[in-house]
Predict the 3D structure of the following.
Amino acid sequence: MLKDKVKQKIAAWQKKKEYEKKIAELKKRDPFTYKNF
Amino acid sequence: MIKLGISAFYHDSAACLTNGNIVIAAAEEERFTGIKHDSSFPINTIKWLLRSTSTKISDIQEVHWYENPDTKDDRVKTIFNKRPIKTFFLRQRYNKDKKNNSPEALLKKLGYTGKIVYHDHHYSHSAFSYFTSPYRDAAILTVDGVGEWETTTISRARGNKIEKLISIDFPNSLGMLYSTITSYLGFRPNEGEYKIMGLAPYGDPSKYFNKLEKVLDNTSNKFYLHQKYFTWEYSDKIMFNKKLCQLLELPPRLPEEPLTQEHKNLAAALQKLYEREFLKLVKKAKDLTGSQNLCLGGGCAYNGVANSLAYTFFNSIHISFAPSDAGSSIGACLEGHTKVSPYLGPYYVNDHVRKILKQYDSKLMYSNLDDKKIIQKTAELLQDQKIIAWFQGKMEFGARALGNRSILASPTDPKMREKLNYVIKKREGFRPFAPSVIEDQASKFFDIKESVPYMNQVVKAKVDFLPAATHIDRTCRVQTVNKEQNLKYYKLIKEVGRITGIPVVLNTSFNLKDQTITISPKQAIDRYLSSDIDFLVINNFLIKKKHVKR
Protein backbone atom coordinates (compact mmCIF):
# COMPACT_ATOMS: atom_id res chain seq x y z
CA MET A 1 0.00 0.00 0.00
CA LEU A 2 2.71 2.41 1.06
CA LYS A 3 4.80 1.30 -1.89
CA ASP A 4 1.95 2.15 -4.27
CA LYS A 5 1.51 5.55 -2.72
CA VAL A 6 5.21 6.28 -3.08
CA LYS A 7 5.10 5.13 -6.69
CA GLN A 8 2.15 7.42 -7.35
CA LYS A 9 3.92 10.37 -5.73
CA ILE A 10 7.02 9.77 -7.82
CA ALA A 11 4.95 9.50 -11.01
CA ALA A 12 3.13 12.76 -10.18
CA TRP A 13 6.45 14.49 -9.44
CA GLN A 14 7.92 13.27 -12.72
CA LYS A 15 4.91 14.53 -14.63
CA LYS A 16 5.12 17.89 -12.89
CA LYS A 17 8.78 18.16 -13.90
CA GLU A 18 7.89 17.26 -17.48
CA TYR A 19 5.22 19.96 -17.56
CA GLU A 20 7.62 22.52 -16.14
CA LYS A 21 10.25 21.61 -18.72
CA LYS A 22 7.78 21.93 -21.58
CA ILE A 23 6.50 25.26 -20.30
CA ALA A 24 10.07 26.57 -19.95
CA GLU A 25 10.77 25.48 -23.54
CA LEU A 26 7.59 27.09 -24.87
CA LYS A 27 8.44 30.35 -23.10
CA LYS A 28 11.61 30.55 -25.18
CA ARG A 29 9.54 30.55 -28.37
CA ASP A 30 8.76 34.05 -29.35
CA PRO A 31 5.92 35.00 -29.37
CA PHE A 32 3.83 32.20 -27.96
CA THR A 33 1.00 34.17 -26.50
CA TYR A 34 -2.01 36.18 -27.60
CA LYS A 35 -1.06 39.83 -27.50
CA ASN A 36 -3.27 41.53 -24.95
CA PHE A 37 -1.15 44.31 -23.42
CA MET B 1 -16.47 63.60 -45.63
CA ILE B 2 -13.25 61.69 -46.23
CA LYS B 3 -12.27 59.49 -43.31
CA LEU B 4 -9.26 57.34 -42.63
CA GLY B 5 -10.06 54.26 -40.52
CA ILE B 6 -7.24 52.55 -38.66
CA SER B 7 -6.82 49.42 -36.55
CA ALA B 8 -3.41 48.67 -35.09
CA PHE B 9 -1.27 47.28 -32.30
CA TYR B 10 -3.08 44.01 -31.48
CA HIS B 11 -2.98 42.00 -34.68
CA ASP B 12 -4.18 42.31 -38.28
CA SER B 13 -3.45 46.03 -38.54
CA ALA B 14 -5.38 47.63 -41.35
CA ALA B 15 -6.52 50.94 -42.78
CA CYS B 16 -9.31 52.12 -45.02
CA LEU B 17 -10.47 55.26 -46.73
CA THR B 18 -14.16 56.15 -46.79
CA ASN B 19 -16.06 58.97 -48.43
CA GLY B 20 -19.48 59.54 -46.90
CA ASN B 21 -20.47 56.03 -46.06
CA ILE B 22 -18.74 54.48 -49.06
CA VAL B 23 -15.61 52.42 -48.54
CA ILE B 24 -13.20 53.50 -51.27
CA ALA B 25 -10.25 51.21 -50.53
CA ALA B 26 -8.83 49.14 -47.69
CA ALA B 27 -6.03 46.69 -47.01
CA GLU B 28 -4.22 44.92 -44.22
CA GLU B 29 -0.68 45.94 -43.40
CA GLU B 30 0.56 42.35 -43.54
CA ARG B 31 0.13 42.28 -47.32
CA PHE B 32 2.67 45.09 -47.72
CA THR B 33 5.19 43.91 -45.12
CA GLY B 34 4.85 40.16 -45.62
CA ILE B 35 4.60 39.71 -41.84
CA LYS B 36 1.56 37.54 -41.06
CA HIS B 37 -0.96 39.32 -38.81
CA ASP B 38 1.33 42.36 -38.70
CA SER B 39 0.28 44.48 -35.72
CA SER B 40 2.36 47.57 -36.46
CA PHE B 41 0.97 50.98 -37.38
CA PRO B 42 -0.30 50.48 -40.97
CA ILE B 43 1.97 53.08 -42.51
CA ASN B 44 2.42 51.18 -45.79
CA THR B 45 -1.33 50.72 -46.16
CA ILE B 46 -2.00 54.39 -45.48
CA LYS B 47 0.62 55.45 -48.03
CA TRP B 48 -0.93 53.07 -50.59
CA LEU B 49 -4.44 54.38 -49.81
CA LEU B 50 -3.34 57.97 -50.40
CA ARG B 51 -1.32 57.15 -53.51
CA SER B 52 -3.88 54.91 -55.18
CA THR B 53 -6.80 57.28 -54.63
CA SER B 54 -4.86 60.50 -55.33
CA THR B 55 -5.76 61.73 -51.87
CA LYS B 56 -3.59 64.11 -49.91
CA ILE B 57 -3.24 63.77 -46.17
CA SER B 58 -4.78 67.27 -45.92
CA ASP B 59 -7.91 65.93 -47.67
CA ILE B 60 -8.64 63.65 -44.72
CA GLN B 61 -11.18 65.29 -42.45
CA GLU B 62 -11.31 62.75 -39.66
CA VAL B 63 -9.35 59.72 -38.53
CA HIS B 64 -11.40 56.99 -36.89
CA TRP B 65 -9.44 54.75 -34.55
CA TYR B 66 -10.96 51.32 -33.93
CA GLU B 67 -10.55 51.31 -30.16
CA ASN B 68 -10.14 53.55 -27.15
CA PRO B 69 -6.51 53.68 -25.96
CA ASP B 70 -7.46 55.23 -22.60
CA THR B 71 -9.88 52.44 -21.70
CA LYS B 72 -7.35 49.84 -22.79
CA ASP B 73 -4.73 51.59 -20.68
CA ASP B 74 -7.07 51.41 -17.70
CA ARG B 75 -7.45 47.65 -18.13
CA VAL B 76 -3.75 47.00 -18.57
CA LYS B 77 -2.76 49.13 -15.57
CA THR B 78 -5.47 47.57 -13.42
CA ILE B 79 -4.24 44.06 -14.12
CA PHE B 80 -0.60 45.07 -13.68
CA ASN B 81 -1.47 46.56 -10.30
CA LYS B 82 -2.72 43.16 -9.15
CA ARG B 83 0.86 41.84 -9.36
CA PRO B 84 3.17 44.86 -9.33
CA ILE B 85 6.39 42.91 -8.83
CA LYS B 86 5.64 40.10 -11.27
CA THR B 87 4.67 42.59 -13.97
CA PHE B 88 7.44 45.13 -13.32
CA PHE B 89 9.37 44.54 -16.57
CA LEU B 90 6.20 44.03 -18.55
CA ARG B 91 4.96 47.40 -17.33
CA GLN B 92 8.20 49.10 -18.43
CA ARG B 93 7.86 47.61 -21.88
CA TYR B 94 4.18 48.48 -22.07
CA ASN B 95 4.85 52.11 -21.12
CA LYS B 96 7.57 52.37 -23.74
CA ASP B 97 5.31 50.87 -26.42
CA LYS B 98 2.47 53.15 -25.39
CA LYS B 99 4.64 56.20 -25.89
CA ASN B 100 5.81 54.97 -29.31
CA ASN B 101 2.31 53.91 -30.36
CA SER B 102 0.45 57.13 -29.66
CA PRO B 103 -2.01 57.59 -32.56
CA GLU B 104 -1.64 61.39 -32.36
CA ALA B 105 2.14 61.25 -32.63
CA LEU B 106 2.14 58.67 -35.44
CA LEU B 107 -0.44 60.57 -37.45
CA LYS B 108 1.41 63.85 -36.85
CA LYS B 109 4.49 62.28 -38.45
CA LEU B 110 2.34 61.70 -41.53
CA GLY B 111 1.34 65.36 -41.50
CA TYR B 112 -2.13 64.83 -40.04
CA THR B 113 -3.10 67.05 -37.12
CA GLY B 114 -6.90 66.92 -37.46
CA LYS B 115 -9.60 65.24 -35.44
CA ILE B 116 -9.15 61.67 -34.21
CA VAL B 117 -12.30 59.86 -33.13
CA TYR B 118 -11.86 56.84 -30.86
CA HIS B 119 -14.45 54.07 -30.79
CA ASP B 120 -14.85 51.14 -28.43
CA HIS B 121 -13.16 48.02 -29.79
CA HIS B 122 -16.32 45.93 -29.73
CA TYR B 123 -18.43 48.78 -31.11
CA SER B 124 -16.14 48.79 -34.18
CA HIS B 125 -16.67 45.03 -34.56
CA SER B 126 -20.43 45.50 -34.16
CA ALA B 127 -20.62 48.40 -36.61
CA PHE B 128 -18.64 46.55 -39.29
CA SER B 129 -20.83 43.49 -38.94
CA TYR B 130 -24.21 45.26 -38.79
CA PHE B 131 -23.66 48.11 -41.25
CA THR B 132 -22.39 45.70 -43.91
CA SER B 133 -25.40 43.39 -43.37
CA PRO B 134 -28.71 43.47 -45.25
CA TYR B 135 -30.68 43.82 -41.98
CA ARG B 136 -32.40 46.87 -40.52
CA ASP B 137 -32.92 45.14 -37.22
CA ALA B 138 -30.64 42.53 -35.74
CA ALA B 139 -28.93 41.11 -32.71
CA ILE B 140 -25.16 41.57 -32.77
CA LEU B 141 -22.83 39.19 -30.97
CA THR B 142 -19.12 40.00 -30.87
CA VAL B 143 -16.62 37.57 -29.38
CA ASP B 144 -12.84 37.91 -29.45
CA GLY B 145 -9.72 37.67 -27.27
CA VAL B 146 -9.97 41.08 -25.71
CA GLY B 147 -10.56 44.68 -26.72
CA GLU B 148 -10.15 47.35 -24.08
CA TRP B 149 -11.92 45.54 -21.21
CA GLU B 150 -14.57 43.73 -23.17
CA THR B 151 -14.18 40.25 -24.61
CA THR B 152 -17.82 39.67 -25.59
CA THR B 153 -20.77 41.95 -26.28
CA ILE B 154 -24.40 41.53 -27.24
CA SER B 155 -26.12 44.49 -28.86
CA ARG B 156 -29.47 45.31 -30.38
CA ALA B 157 -29.43 47.16 -33.70
CA ARG B 158 -32.28 49.06 -35.31
CA GLY B 159 -31.95 51.43 -38.24
CA ASN B 160 -28.62 53.18 -37.74
CA LYS B 161 -28.58 52.70 -33.99
CA ILE B 162 -26.53 50.10 -32.14
CA GLU B 163 -27.34 49.70 -28.48
CA LYS B 164 -25.07 47.54 -26.34
CA LEU B 165 -27.06 45.35 -23.96
CA ILE B 166 -24.51 43.24 -22.12
CA SER B 167 -20.80 42.61 -22.09
CA ILE B 168 -18.25 40.26 -20.55
CA ASP B 169 -14.90 41.67 -19.48
CA PHE B 170 -11.31 40.48 -19.44
CA PRO B 171 -9.96 38.08 -18.22
CA ASN B 172 -13.12 36.06 -18.90
CA SER B 173 -12.59 35.47 -22.58
CA LEU B 174 -13.76 32.70 -24.84
CA GLY B 175 -11.28 33.84 -27.48
CA MET B 176 -8.36 33.74 -25.04
CA LEU B 177 -9.38 30.25 -23.93
CA TYR B 178 -9.33 29.08 -27.56
CA SER B 179 -5.94 30.71 -28.10
CA THR B 180 -4.59 29.13 -24.92
CA ILE B 181 -5.38 25.60 -26.05
CA THR B 182 -4.09 26.50 -29.51
CA SER B 183 -0.73 27.33 -27.92
CA TYR B 184 -1.01 24.27 -25.66
CA LEU B 185 -1.17 22.15 -28.81
CA GLY B 186 1.96 23.77 -30.20
CA PHE B 187 0.39 26.23 -32.63
CA ARG B 188 0.92 29.95 -32.58
CA PRO B 189 -1.94 31.81 -30.86
CA ASN B 190 -3.90 34.20 -33.03
CA GLU B 191 -2.80 32.24 -36.07
CA GLY B 192 -3.19 28.54 -35.37
CA GLU B 193 -6.81 28.60 -34.15
CA TYR B 194 -8.12 27.56 -37.55
CA LYS B 195 -5.74 24.58 -37.43
CA ILE B 196 -7.42 23.49 -34.20
CA MET B 197 -10.80 23.75 -35.95
CA GLY B 198 -9.41 21.57 -38.75
CA LEU B 199 -7.95 19.09 -36.29
CA ALA B 200 -11.07 18.77 -34.12
CA PRO B 201 -13.03 16.37 -36.38
CA TYR B 202 -10.18 13.86 -36.07
CA GLY B 203 -10.57 13.67 -32.29
CA ASP B 204 -12.94 12.32 -29.69
CA PRO B 205 -14.15 15.25 -27.59
CA SER B 206 -15.24 13.05 -24.69
CA LYS B 207 -11.62 12.26 -23.72
CA TYR B 208 -10.84 15.76 -22.47
CA PHE B 209 -14.19 17.54 -22.31
CA ASN B 210 -14.86 16.96 -18.62
CA LYS B 211 -11.36 18.01 -17.66
CA LEU B 212 -11.32 21.09 -19.87
CA GLU B 213 -14.76 22.13 -18.68
CA LYS B 214 -13.30 22.60 -15.20
CA VAL B 215 -11.58 25.83 -16.28
CA LEU B 216 -15.08 27.32 -16.41
CA ASP B 217 -17.14 28.26 -13.40
CA ASN B 218 -20.65 27.17 -14.21
CA THR B 219 -22.15 28.22 -10.90
CA SER B 220 -22.89 31.74 -12.10
CA ASN B 221 -24.88 32.87 -15.13
CA LYS B 222 -21.94 34.74 -16.58
CA PHE B 223 -19.04 33.22 -18.48
CA TYR B 224 -16.30 32.93 -15.88
CA LEU B 225 -12.84 31.42 -16.24
CA HIS B 226 -10.75 30.23 -13.32
CA GLN B 227 -7.59 32.26 -13.67
CA LYS B 228 -5.50 29.81 -11.67
CA TYR B 229 -4.88 27.90 -14.92
CA PHE B 230 -3.90 30.91 -17.03
CA THR B 231 -1.14 33.51 -17.14
CA TRP B 232 -2.75 36.16 -19.35
CA GLU B 233 -2.66 38.77 -16.65
CA TYR B 234 1.07 38.72 -16.07
CA SER B 235 2.92 37.00 -18.91
CA ASP B 236 3.68 37.90 -22.48
CA LYS B 237 5.53 34.62 -23.02
CA ILE B 238 2.95 31.93 -22.35
CA MET B 239 -0.79 31.65 -21.73
CA PHE B 240 -1.05 28.78 -19.23
CA ASN B 241 0.74 27.28 -16.26
CA LYS B 242 1.43 23.79 -14.96
CA LYS B 243 -1.95 23.67 -13.20
CA LEU B 244 -3.61 23.42 -16.60
CA CYS B 245 -1.23 20.58 -17.53
CA GLN B 246 -2.10 18.80 -14.29
CA LEU B 247 -5.79 19.31 -14.95
CA LEU B 248 -5.56 17.92 -18.48
CA GLU B 249 -2.98 15.26 -17.56
CA LEU B 250 -1.33 15.87 -20.91
CA PRO B 251 2.01 17.58 -21.52
CA PRO B 252 1.84 20.62 -23.80
CA ARG B 253 3.05 19.95 -27.32
CA LEU B 254 6.09 21.72 -28.71
CA PRO B 255 5.61 22.89 -32.32
CA GLU B 256 8.12 20.39 -33.72
CA GLU B 257 6.62 17.38 -31.94
CA PRO B 258 4.29 15.03 -33.82
CA LEU B 259 0.55 15.42 -33.45
CA THR B 260 -0.89 12.45 -31.57
CA GLN B 261 -4.45 11.21 -31.15
CA GLU B 262 -4.43 12.82 -27.67
CA HIS B 263 -3.77 16.22 -29.24
CA LYS B 264 -6.63 15.67 -31.67
CA ASN B 265 -8.89 14.68 -28.77
CA LEU B 266 -8.02 17.88 -26.90
CA ALA B 267 -8.71 19.95 -30.03
CA ALA B 268 -12.10 18.22 -30.34
CA ALA B 269 -12.92 18.90 -26.68
CA LEU B 270 -12.02 22.58 -27.04
CA GLN B 271 -14.16 22.98 -30.14
CA LYS B 272 -17.09 21.27 -28.39
CA LEU B 273 -16.72 23.46 -25.31
CA TYR B 274 -16.43 26.57 -27.46
CA GLU B 275 -19.57 25.62 -29.37
CA ARG B 276 -21.53 25.06 -26.15
CA GLU B 277 -20.53 28.41 -24.68
CA PHE B 278 -21.00 30.20 -28.01
CA LEU B 279 -24.49 28.76 -28.34
CA LYS B 280 -25.38 30.02 -24.86
CA LEU B 281 -24.38 33.51 -25.98
CA VAL B 282 -26.37 33.15 -29.20
CA LYS B 283 -29.43 32.14 -27.18
CA LYS B 284 -28.93 35.10 -24.88
CA ALA B 285 -28.72 37.40 -27.91
CA LYS B 286 -32.02 35.96 -29.13
CA ASP B 287 -33.70 36.29 -25.73
CA LEU B 288 -32.56 39.88 -25.30
CA THR B 289 -33.43 41.16 -28.76
CA GLY B 290 -36.14 38.88 -30.14
CA SER B 291 -34.71 39.53 -33.61
CA GLN B 292 -34.69 36.95 -36.41
CA ASN B 293 -31.33 38.22 -37.64
CA LEU B 294 -27.90 37.79 -36.13
CA CYS B 295 -24.69 39.64 -36.99
CA LEU B 296 -21.48 38.06 -35.75
CA GLY B 297 -18.22 39.93 -35.26
CA GLY B 298 -14.85 39.67 -33.56
CA GLY B 299 -12.07 37.20 -34.35
CA CYS B 300 -14.12 34.25 -33.06
CA ALA B 301 -16.52 34.78 -35.95
CA TYR B 302 -13.93 32.93 -38.05
CA ASN B 303 -15.08 29.75 -36.25
CA GLY B 304 -17.25 28.54 -39.10
CA VAL B 305 -18.39 25.34 -37.38
CA ALA B 306 -19.77 27.25 -34.40
CA ASN B 307 -21.23 30.00 -36.60
CA SER B 308 -23.49 27.55 -38.40
CA LEU B 309 -24.98 26.47 -35.05
CA ALA B 310 -26.45 29.95 -34.61
CA TYR B 311 -29.30 28.89 -36.93
CA THR B 312 -30.64 27.04 -33.90
CA PHE B 313 -32.00 30.41 -32.72
CA PHE B 314 -31.88 32.75 -35.72
CA ASN B 315 -33.34 32.60 -39.23
CA SER B 316 -30.58 34.57 -40.86
CA ILE B 317 -26.91 35.14 -40.03
CA HIS B 318 -24.49 37.72 -41.38
CA ILE B 319 -20.74 37.51 -40.90
CA SER B 320 -18.79 40.05 -42.84
CA PHE B 321 -15.59 39.37 -44.78
CA ALA B 322 -13.12 40.49 -42.09
CA PRO B 323 -14.72 40.01 -38.66
CA SER B 324 -11.44 40.33 -36.75
CA ASP B 325 -9.60 43.57 -35.97
CA ALA B 326 -8.84 44.34 -39.62
CA GLY B 327 -12.53 44.86 -40.39
CA SER B 328 -12.82 47.18 -37.42
CA SER B 329 -10.85 49.85 -39.30
CA ILE B 330 -13.89 49.98 -41.62
CA GLY B 331 -16.44 49.53 -38.82
CA ALA B 332 -15.03 52.54 -37.00
CA CYS B 333 -15.80 54.78 -40.01
CA LEU B 334 -19.34 53.61 -40.76
CA GLU B 335 -22.37 55.56 -39.58
CA GLY B 336 -25.00 53.60 -41.43
CA HIS B 337 -25.53 50.75 -43.85
CA THR B 338 -23.27 50.45 -46.83
CA LYS B 339 -22.86 48.05 -49.72
CA VAL B 340 -19.26 47.01 -49.66
CA SER B 341 -17.42 44.24 -51.42
CA PRO B 342 -14.36 42.50 -50.01
CA TYR B 343 -12.38 43.45 -53.13
CA LEU B 344 -10.89 46.65 -51.76
CA GLY B 345 -7.15 46.21 -52.22
CA PRO B 346 -4.49 46.93 -54.84
CA TYR B 347 -5.08 46.02 -58.50
CA TYR B 348 -2.82 46.04 -61.51
CA VAL B 349 -3.64 46.88 -65.12
CA ASN B 350 -2.53 44.62 -68.00
CA ASP B 351 0.22 47.05 -69.12
CA HIS B 352 1.83 46.72 -65.70
CA VAL B 353 1.54 42.93 -65.84
CA ARG B 354 3.10 42.85 -69.31
CA LYS B 355 6.05 44.94 -68.13
CA ILE B 356 6.67 42.60 -65.22
CA LEU B 357 6.32 39.52 -67.43
CA LYS B 358 9.02 40.85 -69.78
CA GLN B 359 11.47 40.65 -66.89
CA TYR B 360 10.84 36.89 -66.75
CA ASP B 361 11.23 36.15 -70.48
CA SER B 362 13.79 33.41 -69.93
CA LYS B 363 11.62 31.56 -67.45
CA LEU B 364 8.04 32.05 -68.57
CA MET B 365 5.80 31.70 -71.60
CA TYR B 366 2.56 33.60 -71.71
CA SER B 367 -0.37 34.55 -73.86
CA ASN B 368 -2.82 37.40 -73.50
CA LEU B 369 -6.35 36.10 -74.09
CA ASP B 370 -9.71 37.81 -74.08
CA ASP B 371 -12.09 37.32 -71.13
CA LYS B 372 -14.03 34.47 -72.74
CA LYS B 373 -10.93 32.55 -73.78
CA ILE B 374 -9.06 32.92 -70.49
CA ILE B 375 -12.11 31.57 -68.67
CA GLN B 376 -12.54 28.68 -71.13
CA LYS B 377 -8.86 27.77 -71.04
CA THR B 378 -8.64 27.94 -67.23
CA ALA B 379 -11.77 25.78 -66.86
CA GLU B 380 -10.27 23.19 -69.23
CA LEU B 381 -7.02 23.13 -67.27
CA LEU B 382 -8.95 22.64 -64.03
CA GLN B 383 -10.83 19.76 -65.60
CA ASP B 384 -7.44 18.37 -66.60
CA GLN B 385 -6.54 18.30 -62.85
CA LYS B 386 -4.08 21.19 -63.16
CA ILE B 387 -3.44 23.54 -60.26
CA ILE B 388 -3.93 27.18 -61.18
CA ALA B 389 -2.84 30.33 -59.36
CA TRP B 390 -5.63 32.79 -60.14
CA PHE B 391 -4.74 36.49 -59.71
CA GLN B 392 -7.45 38.95 -60.72
CA GLY B 393 -8.50 42.55 -60.12
CA LYS B 394 -8.55 43.99 -56.61
CA MET B 395 -7.08 42.06 -53.70
CA GLU B 396 -9.49 40.79 -51.05
CA PHE B 397 -9.70 42.41 -47.62
CA GLY B 398 -9.81 39.85 -44.79
CA ALA B 399 -8.31 36.44 -44.17
CA ARG B 400 -10.05 34.65 -47.02
CA ALA B 401 -9.11 34.51 -50.68
CA LEU B 402 -12.45 34.90 -52.42
CA GLY B 403 -11.51 34.37 -56.01
CA ASN B 404 -9.09 37.20 -56.76
CA ARG B 405 -5.92 35.89 -55.06
CA SER B 406 -6.66 32.16 -55.07
CA ILE B 407 -5.11 28.85 -55.93
CA LEU B 408 -7.74 26.83 -57.76
CA ALA B 409 -8.00 23.11 -58.42
CA SER B 410 -10.50 20.39 -59.12
CA PRO B 411 -12.48 19.39 -56.00
CA THR B 412 -13.28 15.95 -57.43
CA ASP B 413 -9.77 14.48 -57.50
CA PRO B 414 -9.22 12.52 -54.23
CA LYS B 415 -5.44 13.05 -54.46
CA MET B 416 -5.66 16.80 -54.93
CA ARG B 417 -5.91 17.61 -51.23
CA GLU B 418 -2.66 15.79 -50.37
CA LYS B 419 -0.92 17.32 -53.38
CA LEU B 420 -1.95 20.83 -52.40
CA ASN B 421 -1.14 20.38 -48.71
CA TYR B 422 2.18 18.60 -49.00
CA VAL B 423 3.57 19.64 -52.39
CA ILE B 424 2.20 23.11 -53.04
CA LYS B 425 1.46 24.70 -49.67
CA LYS B 426 3.84 22.50 -47.66
CA ARG B 427 1.56 22.44 -44.63
CA GLU B 428 -0.12 19.94 -42.32
CA GLY B 429 -2.05 17.22 -44.14
CA PHE B 430 -5.14 17.47 -41.94
CA ARG B 431 -5.98 20.96 -43.13
CA PRO B 432 -9.03 21.19 -45.38
CA PHE B 433 -9.64 23.30 -48.46
CA ALA B 434 -12.77 25.18 -49.36
CA PRO B 435 -15.13 24.84 -52.31
CA SER B 436 -16.49 27.80 -54.27
CA VAL B 437 -19.87 27.08 -55.84
CA ILE B 438 -22.30 28.96 -58.04
CA GLU B 439 -24.80 30.48 -55.58
CA ASP B 440 -28.02 29.37 -57.27
CA GLN B 441 -26.83 25.75 -57.43
CA ALA B 442 -25.19 25.61 -54.00
CA SER B 443 -28.09 23.83 -52.28
CA LYS B 444 -27.74 20.88 -54.70
CA PHE B 445 -24.30 20.16 -53.33
CA PHE B 446 -24.27 21.62 -49.80
CA ASP B 447 -26.62 21.74 -46.87
CA ILE B 448 -26.82 25.54 -46.66
CA LYS B 449 -29.54 27.72 -45.18
CA GLU B 450 -28.64 30.87 -47.13
CA SER B 451 -25.80 32.34 -49.23
CA VAL B 452 -22.33 32.21 -47.71
CA PRO B 453 -20.30 34.67 -49.78
CA TYR B 454 -17.35 35.01 -47.41
CA MET B 455 -16.53 31.40 -46.44
CA ASN B 456 -17.41 31.81 -42.79
CA GLN B 457 -19.78 28.91 -42.20
CA VAL B 458 -18.95 25.24 -42.20
CA VAL B 459 -21.68 23.12 -43.78
CA LYS B 460 -22.19 19.49 -44.75
CA ALA B 461 -21.68 18.41 -48.34
CA LYS B 462 -24.69 16.51 -49.71
CA VAL B 463 -22.54 14.68 -52.25
CA ASP B 464 -19.52 12.45 -51.96
CA PHE B 465 -17.73 13.44 -55.16
CA LEU B 466 -15.95 16.52 -53.78
CA PRO B 467 -13.27 14.78 -51.67
CA ALA B 468 -10.55 17.40 -52.18
CA ALA B 469 -12.72 20.25 -50.90
CA THR B 470 -14.45 18.50 -48.01
CA HIS B 471 -13.14 17.51 -44.60
CA ILE B 472 -12.95 14.09 -42.97
CA ASP B 473 -16.52 14.55 -41.64
CA ARG B 474 -17.68 15.69 -45.10
CA THR B 475 -18.05 19.28 -43.95
CA CYS B 476 -16.60 22.28 -45.75
CA ARG B 477 -16.19 26.03 -45.48
CA VAL B 478 -18.17 26.82 -48.59
CA GLN B 479 -18.15 30.04 -50.60
CA THR B 480 -21.22 30.81 -52.70
CA VAL B 481 -20.50 33.02 -55.69
CA ASN B 482 -22.91 35.16 -57.72
CA LYS B 483 -22.51 37.59 -60.64
CA GLU B 484 -22.70 40.72 -58.55
CA GLN B 485 -20.03 39.56 -56.15
CA ASN B 486 -17.31 38.59 -58.60
CA LEU B 487 -18.34 38.32 -62.25
CA LYS B 488 -15.16 36.79 -63.66
CA TYR B 489 -14.90 34.17 -60.90
CA TYR B 490 -18.60 33.41 -61.34
CA LYS B 491 -18.11 32.90 -65.07
CA LEU B 492 -15.14 30.63 -64.45
CA ILE B 493 -17.05 28.37 -62.05
CA LYS B 494 -20.02 28.41 -64.41
CA GLU B 495 -17.73 27.29 -67.25
CA VAL B 496 -16.28 24.54 -65.05
CA GLY B 497 -19.88 23.46 -64.43
CA ARG B 498 -20.62 23.48 -68.16
CA ILE B 499 -17.66 21.22 -68.90
CA THR B 500 -17.86 18.87 -65.92
CA GLY B 501 -21.46 19.12 -64.74
CA ILE B 502 -20.21 20.27 -61.32
CA PRO B 503 -20.08 24.07 -60.88
CA VAL B 504 -17.61 23.85 -58.00
CA VAL B 505 -13.90 24.65 -57.74
CA LEU B 506 -11.48 24.09 -54.89
CA ASN B 507 -10.33 27.49 -53.65
CA THR B 508 -7.41 28.14 -51.32
CA SER B 509 -5.51 31.36 -50.73
CA PHE B 510 -2.67 32.22 -53.10
CA ASN B 511 0.25 31.93 -50.71
CA LEU B 512 2.79 29.28 -49.86
CA LYS B 513 3.90 28.14 -46.40
CA ASP B 514 3.96 30.94 -43.83
CA GLN B 515 3.39 33.62 -46.44
CA THR B 516 0.76 36.33 -46.50
CA ILE B 517 -1.72 36.34 -49.40
CA THR B 518 -0.15 37.48 -52.69
CA ILE B 519 -0.46 41.18 -53.35
CA SER B 520 1.27 41.99 -56.66
CA PRO B 521 1.97 40.39 -60.07
CA LYS B 522 5.71 40.26 -59.33
CA GLN B 523 5.09 38.43 -56.06
CA ALA B 524 2.63 36.15 -57.87
CA ILE B 525 5.24 35.24 -60.49
CA ASP B 526 8.02 34.67 -57.94
CA ARG B 527 5.75 32.40 -55.89
CA TYR B 528 4.57 30.56 -58.98
CA LEU B 529 8.16 29.95 -60.05
CA SER B 530 9.17 28.67 -56.61
CA SER B 531 6.26 26.24 -56.40
CA ASP B 532 4.79 23.27 -58.26
CA ILE B 533 1.70 25.19 -59.30
CA ASP B 534 0.99 24.25 -62.92
CA PHE B 535 -0.26 27.55 -64.37
CA LEU B 536 -0.56 31.17 -63.32
CA VAL B 537 -3.32 33.43 -64.56
CA ILE B 538 -2.87 37.16 -63.97
CA ASN B 539 -5.82 39.16 -65.27
CA ASN B 540 -6.01 37.87 -68.86
CA PHE B 541 -2.48 36.48 -69.10
CA LEU B 542 -2.15 32.70 -69.10
CA ILE B 543 1.37 32.01 -67.86
CA LYS B 544 3.38 28.83 -67.66
CA LYS B 545 6.92 27.84 -66.84
CA LYS B 546 9.02 27.20 -69.92
CA HIS B 547 9.86 23.64 -68.94
CA VAL B 548 6.23 22.64 -68.28
CA LYS B 549 4.41 20.70 -70.96
CA ARG B 550 0.98 22.08 -71.69
Summary: Chain A touches chain B at residues 15-16, 18-20, 22-23, 25-27, 29-37 (CB under 8 Å). The mean pLDDT of chain A is 86. Chain A has one helix and no strands.
